[in-house]
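Materials and Methods. Structural model of Polyprenyl synthetase. The 348-residue sequence of Polyprenyl synthetase from Actinomadura verrucosospora was retrieved and submitted for structure prediction as follows.
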Amino acid sequence: MEAGAFGQAAQERAAAEVEAEIGRLCERLAEGLAMGLDEGREMVGGAMAEFLVDFFETVRAKGSRPGMRGMVALPMLVHGAETGDPAPARPLAVVHLLWWAAARYLDDLTDVPGAPPAGNTAVAKRVLTALAVGGQLPARLVADLPVPDAVRCGLAGEVSRAWLDAVDGQLRDLTDRPSAATPASVLRGYAGKTGAPYAMAAASAARLAGAGDDRAGGWRAFGRRLGVLRQLVNDQRDLASGRHEDLANGTATYLLAHLLSALPAGRRREALALHAGARHSACARAELTAWMLDDDVLDGYAASVAPLIGHAHDLLGLLGGDPAFVRELHDLVDETAGRLPGLRLAVA
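The predicted structure was written out as tokens:
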């Protein structure tokens, strides 16, 4: 066993194996035969296969493989912490990626300015396919696992909980206006839209390992915290890349809410005016970005994020488990935190 029990090299191999497994699933889907589909379901199966191929191409194009590795690693590390063996949780890593393949498309559909209307046939097809990929494929995968009925029921409950919590968070994200948003309200939305699937992955792995409700709840809380940190990273990547999609969409991000909460009334009105203009003006986006990435603002931002990171580590300390895998989970938190602004570390 390599140093760290399930270190980055092992996690990369696991991510490659999960991607290959989904590739084999795509081949069966294209034939209309996978996941218990009856013959003659080539239409939906082919659409899902194409959808997943596009997802992995997007991951590669956007340089998101480190994030995908984390999605795969989380349930396997939690199962390793519970049992010493990460391998049985690989199907849950597949479920986690299927969920994100669907959620990423649905999120992009609401975020991209000038996106085609929902009545557009191509968009309608993709929305239906996303729902099948993120909802029905995970449900069938869980149903096919060779586990006791009580465990299967618990896993199905985690998938359902994740969808409801994530939709709640996404709705908050869509309706929370910068003028009314606070750092606390933004974090509540993040706990749903990004925290929920990570919570599902962690709690599901614990349930698969035989953990009871209380312990699964502890892992769910940890996963949710990790997901929030990853959403903060996504926000930073958007700024660092120069895409500025959040500003173009008028999204109330945590960094923006932190900036607004720290400004006196007059400067706050100026910032809100810039934010309104940023929807259509590259100059306004650039000026507001400079405000958000000011050293003093980032110092305060880092101080506000530090307790979130500390809480994730504290949860791991309380949960315990196989020390080698718990250590890797601590590293996963630190690796995520290392991509945040204001911590003076490289942005991935």
